[in-house]
Amino acid sequence: MLGPVILAASRSDQMRRFVSAAPGTKQVVDRFIAGETVDQVVPIITDAADKGLEVTLDVVGEDITTPEQAAAARDAYLELIERLKDLGLGAKAEMSVKLSMFGQALEGGHELALANVRPVVIAAAAIGTTVTLDAEDHTTLDSMFAIHEELRKDFPQTGCVIQSYLFRTEEDARRLAAAGSRVRIVKGAYKEPAEVAYQDKAEIDKAYVRIMRILMEGDGYPMIGSHDPRLISIAQELAHRAGRKLDEYEFQMLYGIRSDEHLRLAAEGHRMRVYTAYGTDWYGYFMRRLAEKPANLLFFARSILTK
Ligand code: FDA
């Protein structure tokens, strides 16, 4: 019951101010956010590489309100890519981007987001890596898929995310399970209405399995984004049945969640990519992590009350 309330709060400016200023917040935020600056995240990337893990980097931010903020978001990614190039880490680190941070919701936002994300995709390709477009709420997805298709004309390795809680996703998965495509499947982290999305956890999980099967049996590169042990073992079984080798799909999990599992899967020979978020505009990302697990909220409340 708490999840939808927290997700509603994730869009409230008043709550943003309260949570950001509360004593004790930082301690909990640090569990999910790898740092505020590129300098702080670099040791985390190198440490992950030393442990046999790969990363996808998210400069946190979303729902910006001016074209200048969108340009600043683009520049933050370009700075990150420049740093990865200097460090020779291009092959180990991909980028994940939210198009709302690149101006998608502003007037003329579809074109603006495409214009801002393109230089990031070009810069990523120049250092031997790629970009995945995160999935945000359902109203943004037609635009996201159109931008994805446009980018793939020149950069076919550009990835995108699909969410099993949405009714539309099986059809999207069939379209996307084509040669050369890279698709991350997740359950979905936004508050969606019953007209477009399953509300029941069991239905979301069943849809996840159906979609994984489509991706594993297809010709693309499936990226399994989940911490759910049951879905991870089903993914392994489906990959085996589809005759996929270990380097023909990958697992992805979030920084700070089930870190022992990251290492276990990597040790088994799987490609394991840790979604590593950093930056100062962490509020929306943080609140979605709280919504996913009520115990996080208790931990958060306790850390505020004990400060
Ligand atoms: P589930 O929520 O059932 O969790 C399984 C277990 O994992 C829990 O029992 C718990 O042990 C642990 N766990 C999960 N979440 C936790 C948390 N926040 N804190 C502590 N423990 C937790 N969503 C989206 O809408 N668009 C996107 O682009 C992305 N991108 C993305 C990338 C990657 C790499 C991952 C792993 C996830 C996303 N998501 C996302 C988020 C996704 O939609 C979903 O909300 C979370 O992954 C939680 O779902 P699980 O599949 O982990 O299962």
Structure description:
With 307 residues, the chain is of the alpha/beta class. The protein has one domain (34-281): TIM Barrel. The protein is built from 13 helices and eight strands. The protein has helices spanning 2-9, 13-21, 25-32, 38-50, 67-87, 109-126, 141-154, 169-176, 201-217, 229-241, 259-267, 283-292, 294-305; strands spanning 54-59, 93-97, 131-133, 159-163, 182-186, 221-225, 250-254, 272-278. An eight-stranded parallel β-barrel has the order 1-2-3-4-5-6-7-8, surrounded by seven helices. Helix 5 (67-87) runs parallel beside helix 6. The longest helix is centred in the N-terminal third of the chain and has 21 residues, at 67-87. The model has no long low-confidence stretch (mean pLDDT 94). The structure holds dihydroflavine-adenine dinucleotide.
Q: Bin the helical content.
A: 40-55%
Question: At the first level of CATH, what is the class?
Answer: Alpha Beta
Strand order of the largest sheet: 1-2-3-4-5-6-7-8
Overall mean pLDDT stands at 94
Q: Characterize the largest beta sheet: strand count, sense, and whether it forms a barrel.
A: 8 strands, parallel, barrel
Quickly give the structural class: alpha/beta
How are helices and strands ordered from N to C? HHHHEHEHEHEHEHEHEHEHH
Give the beta-strand count.
8
Task: Outline the low-pLDDT stretches.
Answer: none
CATH-assigned fold name: TIM Barrel
Ligand types: dihydroflavine-adenine dinucleotide
Shape: globular
Ends distance: 27 Å
Catalytic activity: L-proline + a quinone = (S)-1-pyrroline-5-carboxylate + a quinol + H(+)
EC number: 1.5.5.2
Keywords: FAD, Flavoprotein, Nucleotide-binding, Oxidoreductase, Proline metabolism
Protein name: proline dehydrogenase
